[in-house]
Amino acid sequence: MASTLLHATRRQLLVTGGALFAWSYLPRFARAADARDPRFITIILRGALDGLGAVPPVGDPAYAALHGPIALSLTGDTPALPLDGFFALHPSMTNLARLYGARQATIVHATATAYRDRSHFDGQDVLESGYAGAGRTDSGWLNRAVSVLPKGERVASRGKALGVGPATPLILRGGAPVTGWTPSTLPAVQDDLEQRLLALYREQDKALATVLTESLDIEKIAQREAGGMRPVGGNVIEAMRTPARGAAKLLAADDGPRIAALAYDGWDTHANEGGATGRLAQLVAGLDAAIAEFETGLGPAWKDTVVVAITEFGRTAKVNGTTGTDHGTGTVAFLAGGALAGGKMVADWPGLRDEQLFEKRDLKATTDLRAVLKGLLVDHLNIGTAQIEGVFPDSISAKPLRGLIA
User: Fold this and answer.
1) Bridge partners of residue 261, in order along the sequence
2) What is the DSSP letter of 53?
3) Is there a contact between 340 and 405 (Cβ–Cβ < 8 Å)?
4) Calpha distance 110→332 (Å, rounded)
5) What is the spatial distance between Cα 314 and Cα 405, in angstroms, rounded to a whole number?
6) What gap in Å lies between CA 306 and CA 373, rounded to an integer?
7) Are residues 167 and 20 in contact, defined by beta-carbon separation less than 8 angstroms?
């Protein structure tokens, strides 16, 4: 019985540091074409990431004036990290810069979903559902992707997914049948699952068990608070690093999950966003640390891994009166992993002059985020081009972006 509980726990739950981690249980899902054992990890950045702050277009002559006191440059005490002569990377993302140089990271700029309004809740609904508008479904695109995965030699059947957390993210809800714990049954079993998980880590990693205990207590407090758009706890970097470390342990296991989703709050930088230092710097440093934990923790499996970090929309091109940015449109998506044909920027750059901005205020989105996700699912997880249209309904114009995978 103890062995059964141990294996169930490893496949079911990790909630820590203000982050939600859920996954589909697919032991050694194998690509028939090349016998690879790929991992696919989606990180959702809730609150809307300022793409112009994270990946500044230093070569655009309008950028510095628009972003004013928080604009980054290639000079000064804390210069941005050059990428390709036109774009640079936030100086807090040194690990991603290293991966970019090693052709294991790709950045997509001026991207967004089909959503063009500025509500966090509707924007996140569209981001996670994969539909063009909000409120059209209670299922998520990653869950639907699980249902059409090709069978691996150790996968008994397709269409089974498992998502567990204080509120299973929409991205992994509905669509495909959910096996085991579902959102409706979760409240009755949450405490039991937490205790099983802690027991597992006390056996295998006592230090992580201590951190996880503290984080679970913080998570319970956070759920009682209103808002929820800010990170939990005092150390933003550790709040992102810790769940990634635990997730990597599970994903690296031979019998562990292969597809995962994490969500990090706190990216709503209306005030005091900061430039090379400050709030945004801490947030992107946390994301950078999380990616580093996946690289380290996955070990040899990193070569077959793709991590994609996405957000509901971007922020205004011009800084507001409180030295922050407001809800916008175009932003960036970060891709990392040994399976990538990386080391490149993907951007059909629209420009930042007033007449080039969306509604004269936002970076215009020129790359449909669904095209990026489609390309990854088709080329990395071997989902057929016919099936991919069911994963992202009504998106026929967003053709899969090919060439992202090595």
Assistant:
1) 22, 42
2) H
3) yes
4) 6
5) 25
6) 11
7) yes
Tens of pLDDT, residue by residue, the chain (406 residues): 222 222 223 223 333 333 444 444 444 454 445 668 899 999 999 999 999 999 999 999 999 999 999 999 999 999 999 999 999 999 999 999 999 999 999 999 999 999 999 999 999 999 999 999 998 887 889 888 888 887 654 433 333 333 333 455 677 666 443 333 233 333 333 344 445 445 544 554 555 455 445 444 434 433 333 233 344 445 889 888 887 887 788 788 776 778 888 888 899 999 999 999 999 999 999 999 999 999 999 999 999 999 999 999 999 999 999 999 999 999 999 999 999 999 999 999 999 999 999 999 999 999 999 999 999 999 999 999 999 999 999 999 999 999 999 9
Under a CB-based contact definition with an 8 Å cutoff, are residues 276 and 328 in contact? no
Structure-token pair, residue 103: 């052709």
Query: For helices 94-101 and 279-298, what crossing angle results, to 10°?
Result: 50
Whose tokens are 């397709």? That residue is 158
Alpha-carbon distance 288 to 282, whole Å? 10
What is the greatest pairwise CA distance in the chain?
Answer: 66
SS3 225: coil
The alpha carbon of residue 213 and the mean position of all alpha carbons in its chain are separated, in whole angstroms, by 24
Instruction: Name residue 109's amino acid.
Output: H
Instruction: Report the alpha-carbon distance of residue 197 to residue 177 in Å, rounded.
Output: 24
Cα-trace Rg, the chain: 20
State how far the Cα of 25 lies from the Cα of 28, in Å rounded to an integer. 9
Give the single-character DSSP code of 378: H
Kindly compute the dihedral angle of the four CA atoms of residues 357, 360, 363, 368, in this order, to the nearest 10 degrees.
-80
